[in-house]
Each structure stands twice: as structure tokens, then as C-alpha cells.
Design goal:
Layout (H helix, E strand, L loop, with lengths): L38 H23 L7 H10 L2 H16 L3 H22 L2 H15 L7 H16 L6 H31 L2 E3 L10 H13 L6 E3 L16 H12 L10 H17 L5 H6 L7 H32 L6 H15 L4 H4 L5 H17 L2 E4 L11 E6 L5 E10 L9 E6 L10 E8 L12 H18 L15 H12 L5 H7 L11 H9 L5 H18 L11 H12 L16 H4 L9 H18 L5 H10 L9 H9 L6 H6 L7
Parallel strand pairs: 5-7
Antiparallel strand pairs: 1-2, 3-4, 4-5, 6-7
Amino acid sequence: MSTDPSSTASTPPLLSADNPLAEPSTLPFGLPPFADTTLEHCREALLSGMAEQRVEVDAITAAPGPATFADTVVALERSGELLHRAQVLFYALASSNSSERLREIEREIAPLAAAHADALRLDPALFARIDEVHTAVQAGEHGLDEESVRLVERYHLDFVLAGAQLDEAGRDELRALNLRLSELSTAFGQNLVVATEAAAVLVTDRAELAGLSDAEVEAAAGAATERGHAEGWLITLVLPSGQPVLAKLHDRGLRRRVHEASVGRASSGEQDNGPVAAEIAHLRAVRARLLGFPTHADLVAADQTAKTSAAVDELLATLVPPSVANARAEGEVLAELAAADGVELAAWDWAYYSERVRSQRYAVDSAALRPWFELDRVLVDGVFHAARLLYGYTFTPRSDLAGYHPDVRVWEVTDAAGEPVGLYLGDWFARDGKRGGAWMSSFVSQSRLLETRPVVFNVLNVTRAAGGAPTLLTLDEVTTLFHEFGHVLHGLSSAVTYPRFSGTSVPRDFVEFPSQVNEMWALWPEVLAHYAKHTETGEPLGADVVAAIEAAALWGEGHGTLEYLAATLLDQAWHRIGPDTVVEDPIAFETAALEAAGVASDLVPPRYRTTYFQHVFAGGYAAGYYSYIWSEVLDADTVEWFKANGGLTRANGDAFRGKLLSRGGAVDPLGAFRDVVGRDADTGPLLRRRGLTAPA
């Protein structure tokens, strides 16, 4: 049986009779049949799904007569259902439950999937039909509704940006580039998983863990046991440069070991991602020039709300000087504290002394807050409660439904009228085979065309408490949970016809906007009071503590903004190179890029350095990491709109859901923002939130 996805065989390969992915799931809302599906089932369905979609597309191009919206664009929307079922399951496992066999399959499938995508996007006959429909729409000869018109425009732009207008030689060159890029991105991600696990810091002297709570020490001991260490305590790493334990560990030597393990990940040996990243950036530059753009950053911006790299530069230019100044001022305060201990402040000391400032100046002890932030209570009485206040959603546990791992939990979601909305899955705990960070994705997207309701999930990497004790979160982890759930609300609230526009299918520099709005509710009084109760006594978090948290809100924004901007500008530097640039020394390139951008700091490393910048080298944020701050302009302005209109009311929630969340990519995103707020966005709220002032 051929596994070439570009084959034009008359019939696709048949699936095994027992393959549960062969037909749509019969479980509620189309939840994938995780328990019945093996990796071999996934592999078979991926290969068959590519071949099946190619046959479906061949039928579109062979249709008699002039191209129509129904027989071309809608038919394309309906194609590939088997492939989609297999992809969403397989790639969820690849991110959350990886294994050596899965990685083998991933390496096999990645180039085939790239070739398959090119077989569709670079098919001259298919593009000719799309172009024919697009021409009719532009001429006003269509009779289509607004969403259908947008779908035609969207497909046409997708194909143009994918190279559909290239000549045959150009298409061949593009296929080769995309094939190699898929292999490299897969390698980058797999290297990072292995390197992050290998970089975990083993501690053999219990005294070095002074500053951690008993529960955290027990969790570290459990992690050591799980990794096969006969004794000791293991400090595992999260994805960003900054590690949570650095704020707590008294032992400076251990702080340094953890910091250096973090920033040195995947930078040497078999998992060295430096050369991988450099080749990815180079090939992206070559591809961008082939497609008619000066750089990859320009190619990306053309399909975002920013539209141009110049617009991105304009925003970042307003933020860098005040952020550098704020971080420098914070560093001076910390240096004085460190000097009193006989220490010259270093990057691995920053979080430790910053926590001391919070404690001394603002009476906020972040570690001491954790008993008020028990995971289940934060989720049910905080995150779910806010969703009920704003949108009328109710979340009912479905213990009868299984996820892709025993840790995964399932809830059914209903609206204020008791009508079904979809399913929500949560996967909270760090484990081997799971990539770092936190995210949201979908197993099933809402679509009136396909008559599907959403099945969405969140993934975090929280350390599980040992011995069945309640898992306690840091304030940052609470914020992350609210943030990722904002993406879930975008998926659950979708009310579109076409799957291409469902939920979070919006420009990359808009997708973080709803999630950043949602994270604001974590500290709103009516939400915080509902969930922030001591795990043992039930005592609510004191008003004085809440006031101190709010007073301390601006402390650390200099550091936080600078580390983010450093990563953003590093992303831009990698993706502003021309096709003639070949980076021989990735670390030297990184150093020079940070210096040139004015954000280099020995004390404040980028949130992600090149070798573990998963967002841009093994994810969808290449030249788009600026999206978070771009979206925060909208978010900060929207939160002020909520405040001015009465806060967390159903009226406000219904307006935000009806005019923006539910529309997904079916409308102009900035137009949806204007529909809610009544005007274009203002940067003032963002500058005030982060304690920044625009340069004179």
C-alpha cells in the first residue's frame, strides 16, 4: 500500500476493520474514543486520511462546469474529516503523552503531512476553481451571506500565501522547503522534550531545599522516584527561563544550578537545538523571498491584524525604553538587598530578592498564599464561577467519560437555559512525555455546516502534591489557569457555520486577546472571594492580603515586561534575516540581536532563549510572539470597558460573547472589538497596567 499522500489513486487505503477512527465517534459530542485507540490506529488513520482527502479534492477539481461556492469552497470545508479526527488525537498525545513509539510515528508523518498540505495548496486545478469563485465574489456575482463571502476570501488568501500563484519550478522549490521545515520543527520539539527532562536538577542534600514547603519537598522526592533515582529530590523545569523555585530557595548555589540548567537547555550534545533553529530561520527566509516577501516576519504580518512589520516595530518601540528603565530601577533595589547578604546580584538571585521585596514592602509572601489556591477550588469556585457569572455556563463532571490519560478529567458544559454546549477536558499535572507550558486546543470544533459542538481541552504543568494531598497553586499558576480557560471560552462560545472560522481560528495576534481578558477575573473581588479559601480552615483570604497583592501589582512589571520583550525581539531578529544570511553561531546571533534591540541584560534573560523557544521553532508563533503584547492592548482596554459598564454582569458577558467570542474568524477581528467597545483600541490602559509611560 502506498503511503504517498500526494498520490492520486482512485481509492484511498482502507482502514482496519477495528480502527475506531474510521467513523465519527459515537461518544457524547464526538469525544474521541481514547480508550479504544492505539498509536497504530492513529498512524493508519493519518495515512489513510491524507489519501482520502486527496481523493476528495480530486473530485472537486474534476467537477463539471464552472466552479461554484458549493461544489468548491464548501466541498473543501467538508473534506478531510478522517484526517482531522486522527490529527487532533495524535498531536494531543504528542504534546501531552509522548513516548518513543509516538515520536517515531511523528518523525514519519511530519514530512508526509507537509507534502500532503502542499499537494492541496499547490494544486493548480484546485486553486483555479477557488480563484474563479473569488473573482465572482469580487464582482458581486454570488448571492452569499457575509460569512460565506469571508470564507471565499479566506481560502483565496490562504492559497496565495501558501504559494499557489508560483510557477511549476517555484512550487517544486516550495515543496522541498516545507518538507525540510517540517522535519526540523519536529526535531526541535522532540529535542526539547528530551533535553528538558535531562536538565532536571537532582538534589542529594535535604538542607539545600530550605525555603520550599514540606509539600514541595515531598513532590520533588516523588519526581526523583518517578525518574528512577534511588534517593534525593528532583527539581523539574518549566518551559520559560524563570523557574518558580528560584523565588523560594535559600541556597544560592542551588539557585544557580537551576537557573543555568534552565537557560542552557538543548544547547549542546545530541539535543542541541541551536543549529536546528538557525536552519529553520534560514529556510523560512528563503521561503518568504520565494513568496514575494522581504522576510518571514513580513510574510506573517501580512495575515495578521498588524498587517506590517512596521506596525509591530512601532508598538515595541514605545515599550522598550520604559521597560528597560523600570527593570533597571527594580534591579537597583534588589542589588541593595543582595549586598546586605554579601551577594552581588545575579540572574538566579532576582526572583529570590524580588520575593523579599514583596514580603517586606508590600507584606505579600507569595509562597504563603498557596494554601488559599487549591487547584480544584480555583477551577470550580473561581474559573467556572466567573464563566457562570458572565456567560451562564454550568460545568458538570462526566466521570463516565475518559480522557487520553488517567489524569484527564471531563466536564459537560450547558448554557443558562440548560441547553448543551459541549465538553471541556482538563489535564493539569506535569509528567514525563509531556511538553512544558500551558495551552488549549480542540478535539471537535463547533460548526453548523458539520453539525458539531465543541470538545475543548486545557493542559497545564502543575506539580502534583505527594500522597494524595491537595495540589496548591502559586498566584502565577492561578493566573495561567484563568488565561488558558479564556481560550476555552473562545472555543465553547463559537457560533459559526464553517469550521475554518470556529473558536480560536483567528489571527495569531488576536487569539490571545480573549484569554488575557479572562485572566483579569482571577483577582476581581466577586471571583476571588468565591474561591480563595484556606484549604484546611476554609478561612477566606483576608482583605488586607488582597489589598497588599493589588498594591504590589506593579512590582516586578519591569522585569516581566523586559523578559517578554527580549523574547519577542529575539523572535523578530531570527525572522528578519534575509535568504542570504546563514547563522553559523546561534548563541552569538542571539547575543547580538538582544544588544541591537536594546534589551540585553545579564540580570534579565529573555523569557525564552533560542534553543527552547518552542513557540516559534516548534509552534505557531514564528515572527508572532509579539501577539501577546499586541493583544494586551485590546485586553487592557476591554477590561476598562467592563469596569465602566458594571463589571462581571451577564449583560456584559452576553455582549462580549455575542459580538466577539461567538464570531471566531467569521468577521474582521478588530471590527468585532469595535462592536464591543465602540471605538478603536487605545494603548493608554496597557501602559498604565504595566506601569509604563510613553517616551517623550
